[in-house]
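Collaborator request, handled under Task 6.
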Amino acid sequence: MQKIRITKEFKFDTAHALKDYDGRCRNLHGHSYKFYVTVKGYPEKDPASPKQGMVMDFGTLKNIVKEEVVEKMDHAVVLNKEADTRHLSDIDQLFDKTILVDYQPTTENMLIDFAQRIKKRLPENIELIKLLLRETVTSYAEWYAEDNE
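C-alpha cells returned to the collaborator:
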C-alpha cells in the first residue's frame, strides 16, 4: 500500500510585535499569512466507505486547522506575555482579540505552537508531516516532522 501526502492552504491576518527585538519588528505590525498544512497516510481502501480513496477528508483537515489556528489567530494581536505592556494597561480595550503567548511570536515559534495544536487533533492514522508559514511574499518558515522526532 502506498502512503500519500495531502496539503491544505489557509490564510489569516495577524498583528504582532517582537519583545526586545533590535529592529523595526519590535513595533506593532501585521502580516497576511499563508499557512500550508501537509499530512500523510494511506488512502481509504474500503469500497463501501464514502471516504474511499482519501487519505483524509480535506473538510476534516480544514475544520481542525480552522479551529486550532485560523479562528484563534485571524485578526488577533499576538504578543509575548513577558513584553513590557505597562503602557498598554487596557490592552483588552484597545484590541478586541489579544493573545499573550509564552514565546516570542516569530513565524518560527508560531509554527512550533501550531504543530502541537494540530497534531493532537489528527486521527491516529494520520501523520503531520510539514507546516509552512509564509509571513511575506519573500519570507517563510517551515516545520518538518522528520526534524522534530
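The cover message to the collaborator said: "The beta strands are 4-16, 29-41, 76-80, 98-101, 127-134, 140-144. The longest strand covers residues 4-16. Please let us know whether this matches your experimental observations."
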